[in-house]
Design goal:
Elements: E1 27-29, E2 47-49, E3 67-69, E4 87-89, E5 107-109, E6 127-129, E7 147-149, E8 151-152, E9 167-168, E10 171-172, E11 192-193
Parallel strand pairs: 1-2, 2-3, 3-4, 4-5, 5-6, 6-7, 7-9, 8-10, 10-11
């Protein structure tokens, strides 16, 4: 059961309604927010550690400058969310929808977006390291002027995506749809693997 009225003073709990609430700078460790309504909430500068937000609604939420570590975001909705300047480490976003989200100047490390959606996302000047975005819908994704190291994109849809002027050290594109992909990378020693 999810309340239709924001409960900004309520403790974190499954299904809590914090939509539009100001949680900037909050520190949450080991909390259960499965299925919570966090749409449009302000988590700027916050720290969310080893917590479960699976199935949560986080569309248009603000995570700018935040630290997110060890989170479960499986099948969560993060469309239009702002992660500008955030640090994302060991996140499981399997099946999540990040369409239209802003990840500019973000560090993404050891994160999974298997079977997820991140079409038309902005990763400008971001760094993505040791992550798995396999079978994800990444159409129109922009990772210009960024850095990619050890990223798996097998069977992903990268149609019209752009990695223009990014440093690419290890990128695996086995069986990916790369129609219209801009791979004008900055590093002449880039290593990109395609299906043989």
């Amino acid at each position: 059961w999810i309340s239709s009225t924001p409960e900004c003073s309520s403790a974190p709990a499954p299904g809590v309604n914090w939509s539009g609430c100001d949680k900037s700078g909050i520190i949450l460790n080991g909390v259960d927010l499965r299925g919570a309504n966090l749409m449009g909430a302000n988590f700027s500068g916050a720290e969310l550690i080893t917590s479960d937000l699976s199935g949560a609604h986080l569309s248009d939420a603000d995570f700018s400058g935040s630290k997110l570590e060890g989170l479960l975001l499986r099948h969560s909705r993060l469309t239009g969310a702002n992660f500008n300047g955030a640090n994302l480490y060991i996140l499981d976003m399997t099946g999540a929808d990040l369409s239209g989200a802003d990840f500019s100047d973000t560090i993404v490390d050891s994160t999974q977006l298997l079977d997820g959606k991140a079409d038309d996302t902005n990763f400008h000047r971001a760094g993505i390291f040791s992550s798995n975005f396999g079978r994800a819908d990444l159409r129109g994704m922009r990772l210009d002027d960024g850095e990619i190291l050890g990223v798996l994109l097998q069977e992903s849809n990268l149609r019209n995506a752009s990695f223009n002027n990014s440093s690419v050290k290890s990128l695996y594109l086995n069986a990916a749809n790369i129609e219209g992909l801009d791979l004008s990378v900055s590093d002449p020693l880039s290593r990109v693997w395609f299906k043989e």
